[in-house]
Amino acid sequence: MKRIARAALLSLAFMASYSCEKEVSPVPTLDIVPGKEVPAEGQVVSLDVKLNDGTAEGVSRTECTASETWISDFKFTAEKLNFTVAPYEAAREEQKARTATVTVTYPGIQPVEVKVTQTAPETLPGLSLELALKVEGVTVKVNCIPNYLEDTYVIGLVEKSVLDASGSEAEFIAADIENLKKEGNLADLLLKGKTEGKEFTIGFDKEYEVVAYGLSAEGKATTGLFSAAVSALAKPVITVTETPEKISCDGGIFTIRYSVSNAVAGQQLKAVSSEPWIAVNEVKTDAVTIKVSPFGEDHDVPARIGKVVLSYNGAEEVTVQVEQQPRLRPVITSTWDNATVIPADGGKYKLPFAIENAVAGRTLSATASESWISVSSVSEKDGIVSISVAANDAASGSSARKGSVTLKYSKAENLVLTFSQLSRQEPVLTINWNDKMELAAEGGRFEIPYELQNPVPGAELTLSSMYGYLKDLKAADGKITFTLTANPDTEVRKDYLFWEYGVGGTKLLEGSITVRQAAKELPAVADMTFTFNVKSVGSSSVILDCTPSNTSATYVLDVIEKSEYDATTDAELIQQNIAKWTDPWNYDSILNHLISGVKTDHKLSLSRQDTDYYIIAYGLNEDGTVTSKAISKTLIHSLAKPSISFVDWDPWNTLPKKGGHYDVTVKITNPTDTDELKADNRSTDIISNVKVTKVSKAEYTVSFDIAANNSGMTRYLKVMVTYGSVRKSLLDDTEQSAYK
Asked: From CA 531, how far away is CA 736, in angstroms rounded?
C-alpha cells in the first residue's frame, strides 16, 4: 500500500506540473492486496484488482512474475489477479512456512508486489519395517514390508543374549554397521522394497531375534531397531529302543530301532558304521537296518565288536555296539537218558541230538558198540539217530545187557549214548479192581490191592489221574491208595487212574482202571428269582439295583461276558463257580461271593470295553445248595473307553514369564452318565483359582491363573485332569519362561 500511495502522489504532482503548461491524460493507479497466506496443499489464488484509468492495451501489456517456481499460471484482468500455488510437498524432516513475491508490472506504474506465504506441511513419519516370521525346522523365513519402498535397510539374525548384552539399540546398531562394513561392499548388503522369504539358520536351546533397521549406502542408520522373537528349538534327543543281540557267526540283516524326540521338520537321522563288515542298508524314520557279513572259518577266536553311530542335526550322537560271535567249536548235545532200559523184545528207537555251532558242509556219524545194535539212519534236519535193538534171547534168569551209540562230528568231542536191555523175564502187575464198582458220592480215602511179579531193580510204579478227582495217589506194600473228592453233580462221574511201571524213563508196563463215583443227592431246589434295574453302564462299570424274591436268602450277583455265558448251561456255570470257590487249592471261600437283601446303586466292574455282558444272579447257600431253578439275567453293553482331548491347547507349549489367566476347552470322546471331569493341581504355589465348568456332557472348560515368574529361572508346571479312569496332563511339566 505504501508503494501504491507513493506512485499516486507522483502521478498527481506530474499532472499538476503538466497542467501549468498544457492539459494531459490522468495517470492510472493499481491497487492489489499486498499479502496472501496459502495452505500447504496449495490452491488457485484469486485477488481483487482496483485499476483506475486503465486501458485494455495496458491490461494486455501487464506482466506478472513470481520469485519462486512454485507459483505459476498468472491471469490478470482489470478486476482480478489469478495464479496457482503448487502443493508444499511433505518431507520426513520438519519444514518451515515458505514465502515468495508476486510482482505485477503495469505500463506507466511502479511494479506492485504481493507477498505469498504458504503454510508448512505436516512432517511425514520415518521409515518403519514390518517383520513376519515363519519357522520351518532350523530355518527361519523372514518377510519384511517397509512403509517406504525406496528406502534401504538391512535384516539380520542375532542371539537374544547377544542383543540383551548390547546395552542399547543404538550401541547394537553401531556395532552391527561396523561388522557389515567388514563383510564387504556395504551397498551390496542393503535391501530395498518388499523382502520375501529371506532365510536364516538357527541352533537349538537358544533364543533368537530377527532384527532390521534402516541403513543408507553411506553407512548411516536411518531408523531405530525393529525386532521379532524366534522361539528356541528344543534340542533333539536320539533314543535307541532296540538293538541287535549277540549276532551269530553267519551274520545277516538286523534292525536298530530308535526314536527322536523334539524332531526337526526336514531333518533325517544318519547312520555310519565303524567297520567294513557292518553295512548300513537303510535308514527309516524309526529303524536302521544293517547287514553283518559272515565271520571267518577260524574257531575259538574272540568275538568281533563294531559300532554304528547314529547322528541327527542338533542331537548328541548315539553309539550302538554290534557284537558278532565267532565260529565256536561244534558241540554235540542230546536229551537221551543214559539210564534208559529197553525191553527184552528190543525194537526201533530214536536217539535225539543237537549240534551247537554247526558248520555248513559237515555231517554227523553214529557208530554202535554192539552187534545187536544197528544204526538205521542219521537225520541232522530232525536231530534224530534211528537205531534198531535186537531181542534179548538170553536164557531165563540172565541179567540185562548194555550197549551204546557214539556220535561223531568234525572238531567236536564224541558223545556216547548208553542204555541197557532187559532179559526175557518180564515183570507182571495185577491190580484187583472191579471197574463197575461205584465209590461213595461224599468221597474219602480208598485203597486197591495189587501184585507185582518179576520186579525190575530200580523200577517204580507211578500213578496219575485224568480229571483230578483222585488225589494223593500212592503205591506201596502191595496197595494203591488215594483220596476221592466229593461229587457235587447229580450224575455219576468217573475218573481214570493211569499207572506205569518202568525204570530210567523206560516204560516196562502201563495200563489204567476206571473209578466210578455215585451222584450227589441234592435237596429240592427252591425257585429264587431276581429283578434288575440298570441305572447306568459305563466303559468299566455298571450301576444297578437288584431285588431278590427272598430278601433274607443269600445269592450270587455277578457280571459275565455274553460269549462266555452262551458257551455253557446255567447248571454248568453254577457248578463251575461252586467247584472253584470250594477248591482247597484256590484259597477262596464261597462266603466271599454271597450277598443278601435288596442292593441299591450296586457297582459291578467291567474288564472290557464295547462288549456284550449279562448281569446274572442265582440263589446259593453257604453249603453249596442252589436255590434258583435258573439264572436270572439281563443284557448290557459296555461303552467304549472315554478319551480326553484339548482344543487349541498344547500341554508342552512354553508359557510366558508374565503368567496370566487361561481358559482351556476340554473335549470328552465317549462320555458317560456317571463320570465328571476333575482337575488335580500339582503346582499350587504357582497356579491358583483352578475351576472346572461343565459346558455339556462332552465338553468342559478348565480355568486357572498362573503367577508371574520372577525367580530368574525356568520353572515347570503340572496340572492333571481325570475323567473316570482316564487321566491326561493339561500341563505336563510345562515350562514357564523366566525371560519373556
From this structure: 57
If you search the block for the grid coordinates 455298571, which residue do you land on? 542
- What is residue 165's DSSP assignment? T
* Residue 129 CB partners (closer than 8 Å, separation 6+): 144, 145, 146, 153, 212, 213, 214, 223, 226
Give pLDDT tens digits for 107-136.
989 999 999 999 999 999 989 999 999 988
Determine the 3-state secondary structure of 181 from DSSP. helix
pLDDT, tens digit (0-9, with 9 covering 90-100), for 255-265: 999 999 988 88
The b-or-e profile of 476-487 (16+ CB within 10 A means b, else e) is eeeebebebbeb
What phi, psi does 291 have (nearest 5°)? Answer: -115, 120
With b meaning 16 or more CB within 10 Å and e meaning fewer, what string describes 47-86?
bebebeebeeebbeebebebeeebbeebebeeeebebebb
Task: Please give the full DSSP string across 337-405, using - where no structure is assigned.
Answer: -TT-EE-TT-EEEEEE-EEET--TT---EEEESSTTEEEEEEETTTTEEEEEE----PPTTPPPEEEEE
Looking from the CA of 29 toward its CB, the CA atoms found within 13 Å total 16
Cell reading at 331: 558241540
**Bridge partners, residue 331, by sequence:** 356
Q: Look at phi and psi of residue 217 and say left if phi exceeds 0, alpha if psi is from -120 to 50, else beta.
A: alpha
The mean pLDDT of the chain is 89
**C-alpha span between 325 and 262 (Å, rounded):** 36
Report phi then psi at 523, rounded to 5.
-70, 165
pTM for this predicted structure: 0.39
pLDDT confidence band for 23 (50 / 70 / 90): low
Within a 10 A sphere around the Cβ of 281, how many other Cβ atoms? Answer: 12
Residue 315 dihedral angles phi and psi, to the nearest 5°: -100, 155
> Largest Cα–Cα distance in the chain?
199
Rounded to whole angstroms, how far apart are CA atoms 397 and 399? Answer: 7
Query: What does the alpha-carbon distance between residue 403 and residue 346 come to, in Å, rounded to a whole number?
Result: 12
d(CA 212, CA 198): 12
Distance CA 62, CA 28 (A): 13
Whole-number Å distance between alpha carbons of 30 and 14: 17
Give the model confidence (pLDDT) of 380-398 as tens digits. 999 999 999 998 865 444 5
In one-letter notation, the amino acid at residue 76 is F
AA letter at 134 = K
Quote the CA–CA distance of 548 and 529 in Å, as a whole number: 6
Beta-ladder partners of 204: 233
CA distances from 462 to 375, 415, 469, 502, 691 (A): 32, 31, 17, 8, 72
Closest-CA residue to 499 (of 445, 455, 450): 450
Cell of 656: 510366558
